[in-house]
From TrEMBL:
Belongs to the ferric reductase (FRE) family. One of its GO terms (biological process) is iron ion transport. It is a multi-pass membrane protein. This is FAD-binding FR-type domain-containing protein. Keywords: Electron transport, Glycoprotein, Ion transport, Membrane, Oxidoreductase, Transmembrane, Transmembrane helix, Transport. CDD domains: NOX_Duox_like_FAD_NADP. It comes from Amorphotheca resinae ATCC 22711. The chain crosses the membrane at residues 51-71, 186-205, 211-231, 259-278, 290-308, 320-341.
């Protein structure tokens, strides 16, 4: 038969690995002496060797990012050892926010002091600054001016580039799809380009080599499976190595999933093209082709990934979140199993991906990090929010718990979140886990007991069932999987002289624990530095945008007043349902003008996508104008 060489080539590809040797020039069956067969074999073996370099590139990138992360972390620790000090003012009071804790008009007084002192540096800061060498007669003036101009030009380029990376474009009008920041988009495009390179490199796009292209697409697909699962896992080593937890990596997980679906589709289309152009004309019917065991397994796996891709789209997730949760777990398990039996060359990659999935799900999320507690459920005054509260008795930390991971009983950090399950609601909720930020303050090292609060807006599905249950039953048995979170925003705020937290609605569950955390650090540093008559200087501002005025009661006016009395400037614009959205751009700009002159500024935002984009772009403008601003957007989910 004319296509006998191709059949032998397909059989060879099913068995080939990186250790397979090329076919020699010795005697053999006629079809194996066919030059088309030899070219197919060479292409398949080249792909097996090429894909190894892909793993080297990925590991190299992770190594570089890890090195940058740990270098920055070491620098932050060094800066933390050198406290930012301010002297006593003329009246004998500390020239900082933490000193003002008694007067009812403390916030206004604090603002006046900040405005008065922002025009110049303090005496201690001047003393601690390196002395500038005076120019003498031997110093070339033109060379000095040229050096300054070059340095200024270099700083301007870096500043403009940082502002560009920070900027977030508006959503795509036709699809209403939210775009990430320019920096994230560039990294994503580079990653996609890398995969396109490995898909097409050293390929001749001709009909006889169509199978080599289809085989390469499948190889890129399976080679990415371990990476897909490692960046999607809630418990993974990348957080320790790079500082980026699964929340940040989630966008890469989604884009990689879409990329792999495209690779699988191209593989399927390529194999159909092989049948149509080479096998079909030689007498193999479409029925014979589709009922082949290998083809059937591949088509079933492709169908599973097609449904998985469709149900993972944001429009589907938002409308049918519970269905998405169940299908996401079931279909990916089915897809891995089908790919495992589809091609023996995929089994190493599938095995690694399956191991990551099982260790994350069974060992960590169900075993190590799962805690069952009894919580008090109460419906808030707005009649659309549930508050779950429970007391956590902290366990002493050990080296073993630090190594293998900790449950919520070992405490948590500001802005951490947990996955909540309430099995008593209904059967369908037994295996469902929904992410919620811990709204209460994180326990300190010396605390033995802490209160954990969750604020849950009733929308539909799980949250609607929960609020109905809370109206009839005060105490519920709940399962908490966590804590999870990243230290990036926290360390950025700690390292800032002006900390601005912007919360939209329930985003206060992220901002409020940060407020407590920063105040705890200030009080801790006060005790250490007080003997030398100085305080650590950090201005803390909270902007909380609410849709309804009653939402202020989620935290309580008394709690907000207490924060103000401790030096926090609290800004709560009128409810958006009454006056519309506030101009966050102008508000942030005014705060930086008032308090941020010559200071390191950190901005953290949590809220709707449109609000987060406004905050990010306001910070981008400030960076463009020369301000030292860093911004972080807090978001989590599947």
């Amino acid at each position: 038969m004319e296509s006998e060489w191709l059949r032998d080539g397909l059989r060879f590809a099913l068995e080939a690995s990186i250790f397979t040797t090329p076919v020699d020039d010795g005697p053999g069956p006629p079809q194996q002496r066919d030059p088309r067969f030899r070219k197919l074999v060479e292409g398949v073996l080249y792909s097996r060797r090429l894909i190894l370099t892909y793993h080297i590139v990925i590991l190299g990138v992770i190594t570089i990012v890890s090195a940058v992360h740990w270098t920055r972390k070491a620098a932050q620790r060094r800066r933390a050892r050198v406290p930012r000090l301010q002297p006593l003012d003329a009246d004998g009071a500390y020239d900082g926010d933490a000193a003002k804790t008694t007067s009812p008009s403390v916030t206004a007084v604090n603002r006046d002091i900040e405005e008065a002192s922002s025009s110049g540096s303090s005496t201690l800061e001047g003393v601690m600054s390196p002395q500038v060498k005076d120019a003498d007669e031997d110093t070339p003036l033109l060379q000095h001016d040229t050096t300054l101009q070059t340095s200024h030009h270099r700083r301007s380029i870096i500043r403009y580039f940082k502002a560009f990376l920070m900027y977030q474009p508006p959503p795509i009008p036709l699809f209403n799809k939210t775009l990430p920041s320019n920096g994230t988009s560039i990294v994503l495009l580079a990653f996609i380009a890398l995969n396109i390179f490995y898909t097409l490199f050293h390929l001749n796009l001709t009909i006889p080599e169509l199978f080599v292209l289809a085989d390469r697409c499948a190889l890129v697909f399976v080679a990415n499976l371990p990476l897909l699962y490692i960046i999607g896992a809630k418990n993974q080593p990348l957080k320790f190595l790079t500082g980026y937890s699964y929340e940040f990596l989630n966008i890469f997980h989604r884009r990689l999933g879409e990329l792999l679906f495209m690779e699988a589709s191209l593989h399927g289309l390529g194999m159909f093209g092989v049948w149509y152009t080479l096998l079909g004309p030689d007498g193999i019917t479409v029925g014979e082709f589709l009922t082949n065991r290998v083809v059937m397994l591949g088509l079933t796996a492709l169908t599973a990934y097609q449904i998985l891709y469709t149900t993972s789209l944001s429009s589907f997730r938002q409308k049918w979140y519970e269905i998405f949760l169940g299908l996401h777990v079931a279909l990916q398990a089915a897809g891995l199993t089908l790919v495992f039996f589809h091609h023996r060359g995929s089994r190493v990659y599938v095995g690694i991906a399956m191991a990551i999935f099982l260790i994350d799900r069974l060992v960590y999320r169900i075993g190590v990090k799962s805690t069952t507690v009894e919580a008090v459920a109460s419906v808030m005054e707005d009649d659309e929010t549930v508050k779950l509260s429970t007391e956590i008795l902290k366990l002493p930390s050990s080296k073993f718990s630090q190594l293998v991971g900790r449950s919520i009983r070992y405490g948590w950090q500001a802005s951490d979140h947990v996955f909540l399950s309430v099995p008593s609601l209904a059967r369908k909720h037994i295996i469902q886990a929904h992410p919620f930020t811990i709204a209460s303050a994180a326990p300190t090292l010396s605390t033995d007991q802490a209160q954990l609060d969750l604020l849950i807006r009733a929308r539909d599905g799980f949250s609607l069932d929960l609020i109905e249950q809370a109206r009839n039953q005060e105490r519920l048995t709940v399962r908490l999987d966590g804590p999870y979170g990243s230290s990036h925003s926290r360390t950025m705020l700690e390292d800032s002289e002006l900390a601005i937290l912007v919360a939209g609605g329930s985003g206060i569950t992220v901002a409020w624990p940060f407020i407590h955390h920063l105040l705890d650090i200030t009080r801790s540093n006060d005790t250490e530095i007080a003997p030398i008559s100085a305080l650590r200087s950090q201005k803390i501002v909270l902007i909380w945008v609410v849709h309804k005025s009653s939402h202020i009661l989620w935290v309580g006016r008394d709690a907000l007043s207490d924060a103000e009395n401790n030096g926090v400037e609290v800004i709560t614009p009128e409810a958006t349902e009454e006056v519309g959205r506030p101009d966050l751009d102008s508000m942030i700009d005014d705060l930086v003008k008032d308090y941020g002159k010559g200071k390191k500024i950190g901005v953290v935002a949590c809220g709707p996508d449109s609000m987060s984009r406004s905050v990010r772009n306001a910070c981008s403008k400030l960076v463009w104008r020369g301000r030292d601003v860093n911004v972080a957007i807090e978001k989590f989910g599947w």
